[in-house]
Amino acid sequence: MVKNYKKKQNTGRLQYSQDDMVAAVLDVNEGMSERAASAKHNAPQSTLHHRICGHVQSPGQSGRSTALLQIEEVALAQNLATMGDFGLAFDLSEMRMFVKVHLDTMHRSIPQFADNLPGVDWAHGFMQRHKDLRSTRHCQNINRKRAAVSEVICQKYFDNLQTSIADIEPHLIINYDETNLTDDPKTKLMIFRKGTKHPERIMNTTKSSTSIMFSVTATGMLLDPYVVFKGERLQDSWIMCGPLNTHYNVT
To answer: pTM of the predicted model, to two decimals?
Structure first.
């Protein structure tokens, strides 16, 4: 279970500004003593000493340093958001495994990670530190063929359609749409860039589904719906209490 850490109020907060700390460091570099620079700019002397010695990994951050370097966390956050844009989103488990592979490849060992695998707490903490990512998004799985449809392909389709229906009467033009009701969609919480309107993940595997077809003519006449179940024989229980004027079939 993930631990929800709650800091006490008015504790662990920085009591100085980063501008004052930078000014104090500059004064020390110009010859002023650390004590004098600390008093002049109201910056803690111990913090000033650590900053000058280069012992601070994340300037301006209170509390314990992160397990990964700040530049690594920023790069990880940016790449996760980009992968989500490409339809190759990661979930939290895949993100943790990705970090482990990175550390193993770089021959680095992080004491906070068991066998270099970040824990669940670290993953949630990472998401809290990078608000431009969101892990609470259910995405729609689409295959690669559908993902490859571009604006140029759509434009060619409508150009060909306009030529094809040029001399056809409106009541003979039928628009047809199919909707699948999946029995086990198994949507997962994936990582996407903040503000993504249509989160999708490209996958080549699908689940069985029941197809419902709707058709309407160019004059506005709605045809009867058509339902197709997966199977070889149509069972009476499948159509019991179904909508009126509905046609049923099997694959």
So the answer is: 0.44
